[in-house]
Amino acid sequence: MEQVNELKRKVLELLKEDARRTPELLATLLGAEEEEVKTAIEQMEKEHVIVKYATVVNWDKVDDERVTALIEVQITPERGRGFEGIAERIYLYPQVKSVYLMSGAYDLLVEVEGRNLREVANFVSEKLSPIDSVLSTKTNFTLKKYKQDGIIFEDHEEDNRLMISP
Amino acid sequence: MFTNKNQPSGEQSKSMSSYLSPLVQQIQPSGIRRFFDLAAGSKDIISLGVGEPDFKTPWHVREACVYSLERGFTGYTSNAGMPELREGIANYLHARFNLDYDPANQIITTVGGSEAIDLALRALISPGDEILIPEPCYISYSPITAIGGGVPVGIETFGKDRFKLTAEGLEAKITPRSKILILCYPSNPTGAIMSREDWEPIAKVVEKHDLIVISDEIYAELTYGSNHVSFASLPGMMDRTILVSGFSKAFAMTGWRMGYACGHPELISAMLKIHQYTVMCAPSMGQVAALEALTNGMEEKDRMVDSYNQRRRLIVKGLREAGLECHEPQGAFYAFPSIAGTGLTSDEFAKRLLREFRVAAVPGSVFGLGGEGYLRCSYATSVSQLNEALERIGALVALLKKERENKA
Fold first, then answer.
1. Of A31, B122, B286, B407, which residue has the fewest beta carbons closer than 10 angstroms?
2. pLDDT tens-digit series, residues B328-341
3. Using CB atoms, which residue from B36, B310, B313 is nearest to A162?
4. In the CATH hierarchy, which fold is given to the domain comprising B59-296?
5. Which residues form the Transcription regulator AsnC/Lrp ligand binding domain (chain A) (predicted)?
6. What percent of chain B has pLDDT over 70?
């Protein structure tokens, strides 16, 4: 992996806080040249360091029923390819939001999203479990999301400082 | 008898104020307070008037305090503070500023840096002593000097010197009654810092005139580009200096009221006498939190300082683009732009900014000599709020320019 230099790292941190920050604002905040920042961003986009600019949504606040499950999957690795091939077979399903290879009691952690419980259950029983090398699955439905990617959904820490203070 | 509205009295009434100490009566309420009253009650104001971090105290610090409360750590500590905390402070000052204090008899923990300054002044002042105070500066020094029976003597510092104290400026104000010099660098409100080269001639004057120095270094962690140089670290100055600091600014712990003072054992022992008869000890829960901050808080502190630095660049650029002259602050979290070119006094400018553009900032005049013509803008606020505030300041400056042209 390419060594990310200091400017790039700072740019990433600031964009992670707010992806809509312009190169001009980033340059001001970091005391850098706007061109320098632009180049850094372009490079990181090209190298897929910046994969995508996305919006963090608290779906609980939208009248849009959906359920998420975290599924622990045990699998037998394939000769020669290990976990790669099987992971790919799983992550290509559009219902699958994320897939992680894990150490510990199971191998893959698969995040699946559906419109309701039945849809997720069907996915597990019809798509995931029947895969040859899948040994077992354990489905955990998420009830509420408090924090995601470092962002607290219901932040109670308001700014209650006095308007003017010494 | 003093007057009582509800009970008409036949006797000669005497007003309550006649009971008050003349020392207290001569003190004016703080100009910051006056502005606070103007701004209070309105919801949609963007405030650049806040003299405190916009971060909450790091969670591990709060959590350590909660945990210690659960275990029942709620009693008095020794008067000077928990030995572990004093040791922590000693280690910290050694590592950061190359200062060596003995935690046994050279460090006292106090209720905020404010108490430490008050203790130092009360331990030192004989009635009529003159206390030298470079201005513009934090609003409390002059009033607490007066309450302590001393005579505050302001030393004006100037924008052209980037608000640094100069040896000539200091020397010009020295009389046979001069006894104490109060320093506050990095400076609230100007953001000025002093380098070793800046300090050396000051130390010579201090030595020549046999002054004692109270050095308020509460903003020491908040410097950008160069490290803070503690006045006590200059040759020969350690024994003449009472170093005052605290946890409010570096660790976002303003409400905890945790501060400390370090100095010559005899000075500290004199301060300890007053401290033990007035407040006994700093709050035990605050001491636990402070120890946690010192022990495990440096990473969080660095992150906060980094963030202030980013916003410092934003506000200085924004103020200049708005048409205000602004020197680059090197410390604390205030920008101190000049509004002299707008034709208004700092008070008028701040009032119009608040009333017409709903941005609160503090007029420089409240900070003493040399503050008139400037505005204190705290940049401890979010990037989006800062951007909005800068736009509004720009709008006021443009409006004032138009008004001047129409008059001409």
1. B407
2. 999 999 999 999 99
3. B36
4. Aspartate Aminotransferase; domain 2 (3.40.640)
5. 73-144
6. 97
